[in-house]
Amino acid sequence: QVQLVESGGALVQAGDSLRLSCAASGRTFKTYAMGWFRQAPGKEREFVAAASWSGGSTYYADSVKGRFTISKDNAKNTVYLQMNSLKPEDTAVYYCAVCAAARTFQTYTRLVEYDYWGQGTQVTVSS
Predict the structure, then answer these.
(1) What angle do CA 5, 10, 12 make, to 5 degrees?
(2) What angle do CA 119, 124, 127 make, to 5 degrees?
C-alpha cells in the first residue's frame, strides 16, 4: 500500500502562483510515476501532469503546458506541482496519484494507469 498526502491548496487570485506538494509513504519502491489530476465541480477528473520516477520524463496536459511544472524529490518520495499564471478555470480539487505497475501502452496520462490516490487539495482561483 502507498499513502499519499497532498498539501498547498489555497484561495488565490488570477495570475498568482501556487505550489502543491504530495508526500508518498509505504511501499514506494514500486513507483513508476507520480501524477497530478484535478476535478472541477460537475466535471470529470482530468490529467494535469506526471513525472516518471526513475527517469526524467515529464508529461503535461495542453491546458497547463508552459504554466505548470512538475518536479520530484526521490529521496523524500515527494512530488511537487508549481502552478504559475493561475486562471479561474484552474479551480479544482487537485489529486496526487502513484502508478505502481507497468502497463501496456503506458502513457501516465490516464486515470486507469494509477493505483493509489490522495484525498485531494482544493485550489480556488478568483478572477
Answers:
(1) 150
(2) 165
